[in-house]
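Page 42, continued from yesterday. The earlier attempt failed because a stray header line got pasted into the input along with the sequence. Redoing it now with the clean sequence only.
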Amino acid sequence: MQARGMALVVNGPAGDHWRANGRLMAVAWGICLALLLALGGASSANAMQDQVIRGGWYPWKPYQYLEKSDNMRRITGLDVQLLRAVFEDKLGRTLELPQVGWDRHQKQIRSGDRDVAGGAFMTEERSQYAYFSEPYRTEDIILVSRRDQPTARAMLQPSVFSQSFPKSQLRLGVVSGYVYGDAIDQFLRAPSNRGRWLSTSTDLNNLQNLIDGKVDLVAIDRLVGGTLLWEQGFTSQLVAGNQPIFSGPIVVLFSRRTTSPALVNAFNHAMETLRQEGRYNQIVRDYLFPTLLGMTAGQPWFFALETIGTAAFAFSGVLLAQQERFSLFGAFVLASLPAVGGGILRDLIVNRDRPAVLQSVHNLTIVIVLVLFSYIVMRAPLPRRLPRWTHHLRLNGAWMIQVLDALGLAAFTVVGVIVAVEEQCDPLLIWGPVFSAMTGAGGAILRDVIRADASHPTLRHEIYAEISLFWGFVLSLFISFYADSNSVNPIPLNTAVILTAMGCLITRLLVMQLQIKPPAFGRIRKLGGQ
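This time it went through. Structure tokens are written below.
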């Protein structure tokens, strides 16, 4: 062994042994370095993976649904927007939401293939594989039956259902993986009842099975059921119960395999921040209140009110066409403008994807039938001696038309606020009354413009649009305060709609009876001279 400067040289057998050990150590260090790099890369990959929260969605409007507009599609809904606001805006995570069935979603939460699931009830079974967030809303389960089946309709009352349904032969429709409360869940678990319930993948399939007679009752979330009945046009065939058979808090499930209590605590804190900022209430109003109001507008009594009002508006145009000797087409124009013109004007201003007049031909059909029927009646020869009832009709006909017109004004006032809520117009206290007046009186104003009526009675001589403005403001004010209560019970909102319609009707009748005139804006004084 000899030293050469600062280098160490080993010769002989000892040197060979040393060099061999050196190579082994170099290989060992290389393996260690590779392992460290691999572990570092895996840690980086896991860190990146932790930034992605794997969730899912399924058709469950208004909580989770696919919205289509202007050839665009996006996943939205109350639960979707709340989870995005928390995970993406507050926690800086990326939320993945592929479509997946609820039953499969639960299995993947258990296995760790998904991280979170929103809109869930808390159960002992789910606590075995998931953490629970703090409740962020409540949910009511109701029953739906066919209108023409009195035995099933009696079961819509929770007390009657709990006592009579187990002993009956009625069949129940449910969705796979859903929780419906103790009364229904115990019924589903009993082996002897296996032939009395039918499971499907969606609530829409359940309701279709109810219409087809495959089941007699369907258990469903109150708002989901109300949305489907309204949008699918099932209200004439199906009826929903008013009292919930089960109510409970709703939470977010966090998989125990892929998440931690720390993430749950961060979620709870972020959700509380949303409440304090007022953003939670805004999301609730944007997604729940269109559904609640739509459920009310889909009721048979409101449909009848709107139909009567549309016919009255149209008939007022027919009478003007007769008095001023318009052509048949002119009569159609004068009749259609007060009936649908205000709604068209409103929808153009709000830039709706599809105006209401194109969504349903109901109102336009009323106008066409009424104009043609009136034309035939007016052109028909009159008998020499008219029946006595025609004398009373001539005396009271104008008053009857005004009463019907007031009914239409009441219905269209409510419709204006509904559209403002649906289109998320903010502030509602301004746009709600504006759309009410535009829907109720805008068509009449357009009709007067077409007639070249310089007097403009709806703007100068009658308190008409002002009534819609006032009662539209009242309903908008109630909705604004009701959103702050975080309640999803539709009964107070239904009551508010009824009171608004009745208030508008009574106000219009009082104005006509007392012949109250609107205050003049003022006179222009002449300048100069005595």
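Notes: The first strand starts at residue 2 and ends at 4.
Reminder to self: strip header lines before submitting.
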